[in-house]
Amino acid sequence: MSTVKIAELLREAAARLPGEDARHEAEQLLLHTLGVERAWLFAHATDEVAPADQERFELLLQRRVEGHPLAYLVGRRGFWTLDLEVNVATLIPRPETELLVEQALARLPADDMVRVADMGTGSGAIALSIASERPLATVMATDVLGPTLAVAVKNAQAHGLENVWFRRGHWYTALGADRFDMIVSNPPYIAAGDPHLQQGDLRFEPPPALASGADGLDAIREIISGAHEHLVPGGWLLLEHGWDQGPAIRELLEQAGFVGAQTVQDMEQRDRVTLGRLAV
Ligand SMILES: C[S@@+](CC[C@H](N)C(=O)[O-])C[C@H]1O[C@@H](n2cnc3c(N)ncnc32)[C@H](O)[C@@H]1O
After folding, report:
1. Is residue 1 over pLDDT 70?
2. Backbone conformation region of residue 232, classed left if phi is above 0, alpha if psi is from -120 to 50, else beta
3. How far apart are CA 59 and CA 214, in angstroms?
4. Is 273 within 8 Å of 264 (Cβ atoms)?
5. Is 253 within 8 Å of 232 (Cβ atoms)?
6. Ligand 1 binding site (Cβ under 6 Å of any ligand atom)
7. What percent of the chain is modeled with pLDDT above 70?
8. What is the pLDDT of residues 112-155, one digit of tens each?
9. Is there a contact between 125 and 150 (Cβ–Cβ < 8 Å)?
10. 264 near 272, Cβ under 8 Å?
11. Residue 27 Cα, ligand 1 centroid: separation in angstroms?
């Protein structure tokens, strides 16, 4: 293999990647390969890349060209203020989910020892963000998949968050008889036959993190119908969901004894989070 300089390698790699982010993605893959910071890359732009590093970079690049998500290839994704480990057992946290964190924090006093449950925690994105912003809160993070929960535990440890606890199990079975001031969840909500499941990053993400029944609402129905047994009176339930599911979820909340059900839109003016308060 002939030697090549860092700047040249990056240029060639960016030309092989599709999309507007090609240059940024090529940099991320090279940073990961070399285990260096971005500033180092530019200070050493004319350095030659060792053949072994070139080979490892080429493998990553090929996988990215095939469509493997960048976050899985580099094993990390930023969410809220946290840099999180991710792998093929976890959903890749989405920026839209930060809206759920914002809405949760707006209802969680900073000076109270509130109890919060994040069901279907994945990498821990929501639970750890809340725990980091509300040190007095106790956050219970659950997931049905053991390998997924293991990543969330590692992320909590990496960020030194000691107010998060973890349990594995199917929705409320993981919570036992415990009650919370707030339950948050970004559950699977895509309809099983939705063609988007065969596109983009979704092709590589764990199916239990994505699809939920014929209309995508199976998990949400289960979470709403069981909430009264795990919330204190006046407790909050906040759910992330698809752009067209807001009205159905508000109706489900009202039928289940929630008051003030409302849907909040994301930055692209699409319905994204629906929430309600259990009647006192
Ligand atoms: C859409 S992902 C959300 C992950 C993470 N909360 C986030 O926002 O990035 C849904 C998560 O729910 C979990 N899940 C699916 N079915 C579940 C069940 N029956 N009980 C508990 N968790 C479940 C999946 O493993 C996945 O981690």
Report:
1. no
2. beta
3. 38
4. yes
5. no
6. 91, 93, 97, 119-123, 125-126, 142-145, 148, 170-171, 186-188, 208-209
7. 100
8. 999 999 999 999 999 999 999 999 999 999 999 999 999 999 99
9. no
10. yes
11. 30
CA-nearest residue for atom 25, ligand 1, is 209
Ligand 1 midpoint to CA 243 (Å): 18
List residues bridging with 165 in a β-sheet. 140
Helix (H) or strand (E) holding 77: strand 76-79
The closest residue, in CA terms, to atom 19 on ligand 1 is 170
Cα–Cα distances in angstroms (integers) from residue 238 to residues 7, 61, 150, 222, 268, in the given order? 47, 39, 24, 14, 19
- Rounded to whole angstroms, how far apart are CA atoms 88 and 194? 21
* Average pLDDT for 60-86: 98
Band the pLDDT of 262: cuts 50, 70, 90.
very high
pTM of the model: 0.96
Secondary structure class of 8 (helix, strand, coil): helix
Residue 3 pLDDT level (bands cut at 50, 70, 90): confident
Assigned token pair, 54: 């070139």
Ligand 1 centroid to Cα of residue 53, in Å, is: 36
Question: Nearest C-alpha to atom 4 of ligand 1 is from which residue?
Answer: 122
Which amino acid is residue 38, in one-letter code?
Answer: R
Please report how many Cα atoms fall inside a 13 Å half-sphere around the Cα of residue 160, on the Cβ side: 0
